[in-house]
Amino acid sequence: MELAVISMKNHVENQEISRKIRDYHKKKGQPLAIRFSEELTHILLEAPCLYIPDPSMLNKDISISGTVRVYADHAEIYPQKTGSTIHLFLDSELIDELEQIRARVKNKTQDEVISELLMRGLRSYHSERKDSR
Questions:
Q1: Number of continuous H segments (helices) and E segments (strands) in the chain
Q2: Which of these, 20, 75, 83, 98, has the minimum number of CB atoms within 10 Å of its CB?
Q3: The model's pTM
Q4: Helix or strand run (H / E) with residue 59
């Protein structure tokens, strides 16, 4: 299971923040693991979803590993999604087509490619609907 992680320096102010986060998790009935680095210099908070009672607690001294969602009264930190590797066995015709696609999108970002595919799909959908009328 992937975990969201907060790391902060171990000093009195951050210990108080850790206690508030711990108490908020207890109130919500959510799991939370609190541990310290080997040198006791950092406090580490780990959970499947970290709930922060006040978004202002997330100052620049706190290192966050995950995706932060801020709401009016609290913040939530979710684990970062990691990609997974799959192995495919493809025929030669499909490999040729994939190489042609790769050559066309070589200088584009992933966002640009997805956006272009979406727009082409929408145009194709609209043209098919017009033809069927």
A1: 3, 7
A2: 83
A3: 0.59
A4: none
